[in-house]
Amino acid sequence: MKRERPYHSSNDTRYQGQPGRGRNMRPEGVQIRRIRRTSVTSKKRTYSKPPPEPKKSFPVPHIPSSIGKVPQGNRPHPDDQETNLKRQIEAGAKNDYCQAFVDSGSRTQNFIVDEGRKNLMQNFPKLRELILLKNELIEQYHTPPYYLNVDLKNFDLKQLQSKFDVILVDPPWEEYMRRCPGAIVEENLQPWTFQELCNLNVQDVADEPSFLFLWVGSCEGLNQGRRLLKKWGFRQCEVICWLKTNKEKDENGQNKQYGSHVQEYGILQHTCEHCLMGIRGTVRRSTDGHIIHANVDNDIIIAENPPYGSTQKPEDIYDLIQRFCMGRKRLELFGTSRNIRPGWVTVGQDLPEGGTYSPSAYHSHFQNPNSRYVPTTDRVEQLRPKSPPRSSRRK
Fold it and tell me: Which residues are within 8 A (CB) of 282 and not within 5 positions of it... i.e. 6 or more apart?
């Protein structure tokens, strides 16, 4: 005889409505509570992430098809170009400086607002006042212009018998002659080899501390220039970039191109040159204010491209050097007649015969120990930007 399975109330909820012995049975007077089952979830609340915001789409600069590439011989008159450009701007055309260069030959940097070296910082009265005060002090303590006509390949710089605070070098790189074939110029463009530049021994006339500014062009001179800095005992601290504009017009009313658009020695259009800045010794802005001073200039120079074949550099580089370095002993190597100026000793081969430089005459301007550097005034010190003092404890 089989024993009946005892009844458990929990069976009602688990086995209610299911076939099998003892299931679907309930005693009289017993109510069955149906329990709603829920899935086991973590106590930690989870929140659904909001849907990602749609990416903003910016309009791509577009130029109407009417501004397509125009052959050189069929370009419209400049007045017609200006009228068409105004119409396109009114119609909603976007700026496309690359296409403007293709169409008109006007370089991109022509559209940068530049006030010129004589009108610098016009919108900043205090900085403008600082620049004018600095320029007055620099001119007041200039030495007379000295120059010396020598062949630097056979000249020992030690014969200058002086150490200089600033040295500006513009070597005849091969790039200078390569980019202007057939040019007729008065200066000597015969390039120097890298080894000949290494033999120049600029370190023999560099004081400590001192600064070196080395023009290196825009091609292979960049790498070779860095090697020269190391060879001469300088370490690179800045790179100054000269953006060459071509705002001047030719006889046909077009922007001057200063050579062919297609340059076989490069991939892109070369419209800039670089000047490496090196430092020798240790100089700190916070403690050496008598050596380096008004840091109001930046590392970009915007100036017009020189005539075809010329290696002339912008006058802005002299302003930058003189406002930055307070030293009065300044030397320029590979200078020409156009580089002779007060406050500088210019040495090179493309200079008037002979020269005005003599060690004794030059040293007579520095007999007073306090005359080595350009002095400052209370007003200049009040206006000039200063570096914040460094914390004695580094984190």
Answer: 209
